TrEMBL record:
It comes from Streptomyces hydrogenans. Transmembrane segments: none annotated. Keywords: DNA-binding. This is MerR family transcriptional regulator. PROSITE patterns: HTH_MERR_2 (PS50937). Residues 1-69 form the HTH merR-type domain. Gene3D superfamilies: 1.10.1660.10. PANTHER family: HTH MERR-TYPE DOMAIN-CONTAINING PROTEIN, REDOX-CYCLING DRUG-SENSING TRANSCRIPTIONAL ACTIVATOR SOXR. SMART domains: HTH_MERR (SM00422).
């Protein structure tokens, strides 16, 4: 058989046969006097095996290991490893399809936000808040929450979004106070008023999220860069007030001090 004939018989392309020769998966047969390769039945059997192994999902390096006489692993070991890998991929696909189903339901019901897709925790939080008030700070807050939804680890994200549910009820008043400070200096007396209103809206649990100092890099700098100086001062002062409130109730762990 010529290369085109063996390729057609096994169901591959002549280019694939040449590639297998190049990689050493398929030995090159002897050439006839006219220079053409002459393939036999054993070549076809080996080529068919290469095709079956690749169709199972083995990479060509793994196929070479299986075919080599001094292969470090038996075929059953390679296939078991492949089966485990496919099971992992299958689980990932199932999880992604489950998330996609939720997003499709939200899109069909008009509940999919412009910044989506987002986690179920943030989607539930935003659904509970309802329509955004006519406030630049509210829009910015929503953008920051969407960023946190992506960068905060999953276990912390669930806890943070749960805490934010407690904030949403009184958020409208706080947004208004923060909007009024967009052009104010940091020593404006309204900073303290807004900080106390924000601290009153924040639950004690928010004190467990330590915000690094400015200049440390990372999320804190991104967060404060979005705020006007007086607004940033409000947030920092509010976190101090929350810490003082927690300390006044017996410490962060909820136990009385000696």
């Amino acid at each position: 058989m010529r290369i085109g004939e063996i390729a057609a018989l096994v169901g591959v392309t002549p280019r694939a046969v040449r590639h297998y020769h190049h990689l050493g998966l398929l030995p090159e047969p002897a050439r006839l006097a006219n220079g053409y390769r002459e393939y036999g039945i054993r070549d076809a059997v080996l080529l068919a095996r290469v095709r079956r192994l690749t169709e199972l999902g083995l990479g060509l390096d793994e196929v070479r290991d299986v075919l080599a006489e001094d292969a470090g692993r038996e075929l059953v070991e390679v296939l078991e490893e492949l089966d485990a890998d496919l099971a992992r991929q299958e689980a990932v696909v199932r999880e992604r399809r489950a998330r996609l189903a939720g997003l499709l339901d939200a899109a069909r019901d008009g509940r999919l936000i412009a910044e989506g897709p987002v986690s179920p925790e943030l989607a539930a939080l935003l659904a509970g808040v309802g329509e955004l008030p006519d406030s630049p700070m509210a829009v910015k807050d929503r953008e920051i929450l969407t960023l946190l939804d992506t960068v905060v680890p999953a276990d912390e994200r669930a806890r943070l979004m749960g805490l934010m549910h407690e904030v949403s009820a009184s958020a409208g008043q706080v947004y208004g106070l923060l909007d009024a400070l967009v052009d104010a200096p940091v020593d404006d007396p309204r900073v303290e008023e807004a900080a106390r209103a924000l601290a009153g809206a924040l639950p004690d649990g928010i004190g467990g999220f330590e915000l690094p100092a400015e200049g440390a890099g990372g999320l804190a700098d991104v967060f404060f860069a979005e705020l006007a100086p007086a607004q940033a001062a409000v947030v920092r002062r509010a976190l101090v007030l929350v810490s003082e409130r927690i300390d006044g109730r017996g410490g962060r762990d909820g136990r009385d001090r000696d």
